[in-house]
Amino acid sequence: MPSEVEMLDFEAFKERYEKVPVEEYPNNVREAVPDPVVSVHLLTYNHADYIREAIESVLMQEVDFPMEIVLGDDDSSDGTREICIEYAEQYPDLIRLQLHHRENNIHLHGRPTHLFQYWYNTFSARGKYIAILSGDDYWTDPLKLQKQHDFLQANSEYALSFHDAKVAADKGKVVSESKTPDENKRDFSSEDMMSGAYFPALSLFVLNIFEQVPEKLIFCINEDKVTISLLARYGKGHFQEEIDPAVYRVHDSSIWSSKTPLIRVKANNDTLKNMLSVCDDRSTREDIESKILGSCVSLVSRLVFACEVAKALKELTDTLILFAKRKKLFNMFLLLSNLTRFLGGSIKNCIRAKYWRLIQKLGMSAKPQTR
Predict the structure, then answer these.
(1) Residue among 163, 286, 149 at smallest CA distance from 206
(2) Burial call 322-354: b when 16+ CB within 10 Å, e when fewer
(3) Residues 6+ positions from 106 with CB-CB distance below 8 Å
(4) Tens digit of pLDDT for each residue in 240-264?
(5) Which GO terms of the molecular function aspect are on file (predicted)?
(6) What is the pTM of this model?
(7) Which CATH number, 3.30.70.260, 3.40.50.2000, 3.30.390.50, 3.90.550.10, labels domain 7-249?
């Protein structure tokens, strides 16, 4: 990573973002499991209708290695916390229940997020490997963890394993047999993963390489994309078709599916920009820049059609400045060309005016150049 990138370890993360101390419910896990091979990373917030199924899907796992469950509740108000405490008391040698406080929430786009909870859990994990699950999803294969563990143990050139997931509606009815695009049901090279590949988060089984994390990446709502990008520096990704699909649940309060399309596009755009800022590989930077270009066109167009013209122009200006600082004049030209095909009249003229003003301000040639 670039030398100027600020890295945070667990202590620095807590010092900077933990306003109210996180409480760990009394347990014996450190004594009973001094050296876990796998840490199950399970987050929940207001999942009273689903959390039992998620926890039970972990408890049913048949493994021949020591493991721990790092269960984080973000101060739920619907009875989820009480259910988590019930399980923590029943399994004191297995479950480390972290009781979070809403005061610690990291806010993005004017809303609280799960990011403090996510990274606190990640830093807390002691296992060689981390398996990720959300409190409203669940696994179906009792040998899932064993199969993923065995593969990574036998293939050191891989940093993660993933598998497919079905999509279910609120009440459990399956609405899609596969969440993974067909073109992603394959192994991925490190280069493919570095610019933000997509794998179902609830299927991820990864090397625990998270002693330090770039601070900018903590502010990415697409934390699964960031996690995959970081792991790309340590190896490839393997798709395990033989694992029964997990179940990803879509409902009104889910972390991602409940967000509007506009917020999702904005979040993805911000994530790509933060990933670019910590990338030092030329080929990967170009790939991320290409994705930013497409994401910005989508975001600005959506904002314009939503009559949020001021926000649209700000997003456009920020992206143009990003490309200008990197001397990517061709990207600037391509971005504006793509946008002006969608937009017309005064908006088109306004965009063109901003482009020329920016060029003049930066003292750059107005003639578009190829890469």
Answers:
(1) 149
(2) bbbeeebbebbbbbbebbeeebeeebeeebeee
(3) 17, 112, 113, 115, 116, 218, 219
(4) 999 999 999 987 766 655 667 888 8
(5) hexosyltransferase activity
(6) 0.87
(7) 3.90.550.10
